[in-house]
Amino acid sequence: IGGASGLDARSRLLLDGLPNRGINYCDSCKPIPGDEVVAISSFSGAKVHRVSCRHKAAGRASNDFFMPTWATRLAHALPVDVRIVSDDRKGLLSDCARAVANCNIDVIAVTTLSRQEASGSTATMEFTLLVMSLTKLTRCLGALASVAGVKSVVRIEAPGS
């Protein structure tokens, strides 16, 4: 296998963000550059997981593990899921979307839920973001945490988890 998403001349698995040539990125843990990752042989090729992923043994064709390396520059941004819990208020979604946009990160999906509690109304939002690195994601999480009323911002393994 050659090219940026295959094995390089030194037989290392080089990851550039493109799911091709038998390399797939786990839909649950959604690895990005900066994450510690492992690639595991599966029936469809090699699947890349964060080391902490609880799904990394699923669909395994063998005990073959590869220690992949992230390319210096990704060819394609990868999705990451983020959960934001906040006091609900008018303009909250807009403020969060602006914080993400100011970090030059694209939002490809949003799920929102508002519920009334004894202490007031709480909003939970899950964003799927397209990011190029853990550094950019960390900056974005900080920007989201600084939005008025936000109580917590965390990266999640998959929406709803």
Write the layout of secondary structure elements.
Layout: E1 14-15, E2 23-25, E3 37-42, E4 45-50, E5 60-66, E6 69-70, E7 78-87, H1 92-102, E8 106-117, E9 120-131, H2 134-145, E10 150-156
Parallel strand pairs: 1-6, 2-4
Antiparallel strand pairs: 3-4, 3-5, 7-9, 7-10, 8-9
What is the percentage of strand-forming residues? 35-45%
Count helical runs.
2
* Alpha-beta classification: mainly beta
Query: What is the H/E order?
Result: EEEEEEEHEEHE
As laid out across the biggest beta sheet, the strand order is 2-4-3-5
| Regions with little confidence, pLDDT below 50 for 5+ residues | 1-11
What is the CA-CA span between the terminal residues?
35 Å
Query: Which word captures the global form?
Result: elongated
Largest sheet: 4 strands, mixed
Strand segment count: 10
Can you give the helix content as a percent range? 10-25%
Mean pLDDT: 85
Radius of gyration: 18 Å
Can you describe this structure?
This protein has 2 helices and 10 strands. The chain is mostly beta strands. A hairpin with a 2-residue loop joins strand 8 (106-117) and strand 9. 14% of the residues lie in helices and 42% in strands.
Keywords:
161 residues; 10 strands; mainly beta; disordered N terminus
Give a concise summary.
This protein has 161 residues and is mainly beta.
